[in-house]
Design brief:
By secondary structure, this protein is an alpha+beta fold. It is built from six helices and 14 strands. The chain has two domains: 126 residues, Major capsid protein gp5 fold (2-Layer Sandwich); 112 residues, 2-Layer Sandwich (hypothetical protein PF0899 fold). It is 26% helix and 35% strand. The strands form three sheets. Strands 5, 6, 7, 8, 9, 10, 11 and 14 form an eight-stranded mixed sheet that branches. It has a three-stranded antiparallel sheet with strand order 1-2-3, with no helix packed on it. A three-stranded antiparallel sheet has the order 4-13-12. A hairpin with a 6-residue loop joins β12 and β13. α1 packs across α4. The longest helix is centred in the middle third of the chain and has 22 residues.
């Protein structure tokens, strides 16, 4: 086997394809306007003023305020392959080797992005006084999260509410929610919206000492970017195998805290 026949673009493409199919972060966050080396750039457009018409028109100049985000989070993967040439030639075998790596990266990225709930402008309950949820009240509290976004004039489209499996279990017992819904690979609960928010299930949202978070978020609230910094194959000196290793870098920032609402809860 000669590792100089290794084609990193093929492995990177399959790694990212597996990642995107599972990622909550890819679903709920804003993508950067551009990526410049080790950072992402987001543009925020200034507000358009609406004025009373009295026969004349004055013009406002729209400006964009770039927000730069450094990829300060770094995760690597490294695994052995008996023969990179054979795996690469087979094509479909690449997914089997990259799936676990992409899943692990996806969990780390999702947990990081969802940890930004701490900057939400709107809250219900807190770590000192969490809300005790049960099948009778869970739906209504999630409705209240959406109402907080509406009160803040957050757009109705592209809203999400991220819950854990326990909360989904309670929702299944409410007649307003479809029992036994289909959960897609990226956590989307198919066909299920509450107060205009698409329900998404993730175990990567904070859960400490039985107190967990439910996050209502508009897609404009969080900016997120990532890239595979490098991926390469080497012949291992201590094994009759090849090694494939890669470095993923990413970052996230809150762009609009008013477009997030968080509920701190326990299960009653």
């Amino acid at each position: 086997m000669a590792v100089n026949s290794f084609i990193p673009q093929i492995w990177e493409a399959r790694l990212l394809a597996n990642f995107h199919s599972r990622s909550v972060a890819e679903l709920i966050a804003t993508k950067p306007t551009e990526v410049q080396g080790g950072k992402a750039v987001f543009n925020r457009v200034s507000t358009v003023n609406v004025k009373d018409y009295a026969g004349t028109v004055s013009w406002d100049e729209l400006t964009t305020a770039p927000v730069e985000l450094a990829f300060d989070q770094k995760k690597y993967f490294a695994f052995t392959v008996h023969d990179v040439d054979k795996v690469q030639a087979a094509g479909d075998l690449i997914d089997a080797h990259t799936a676990e790596a992409s899943a692990s990266i996806q969990e780390a990225v999702d947990a990081y992005v969802l940890s930004l709930y701490t900057e939400a402008q709107h809250t219900i309950g807190d770590d000192t006084n969490p809300i005790a949820l049960d099948k009778a009240n869970v739906y209504d509290y999630i409705v209240d999260l959406g109402t907080k976004l509406s009160t803040a004039k957050v757009p109705m489209a592209n809203r999400f509410v991220i819950v854990n499996a326990q909360v989904l279990g309670l929702l299944n017992k409410d007649a307003r929610f479809t029992a036994n819904p289909t959960v897609l690979e990226n956590g989307v609960v198919e066909g299920q919206k509450i107060n205009g928010m698409q329900v998404v299930v993730s175990e990567n949202i904070a859960n400490v000492d039985g107190k967990f978070k439910i996050l209502a978020v508009h897609q404009s609230a969080i900016g997120y970017g990532k890239q595979i910094d490098s991926i390469e194959a080497i012949r291992l000196q201590t094994s009759f195998a090849d090694g494939v290793r890669g470095l993923a870098v990413y970052g996230a920032t809150v762009l609009r805290p008013e477009a997030m609402a968080v509920l701190t809860a326990t299960i009653a």
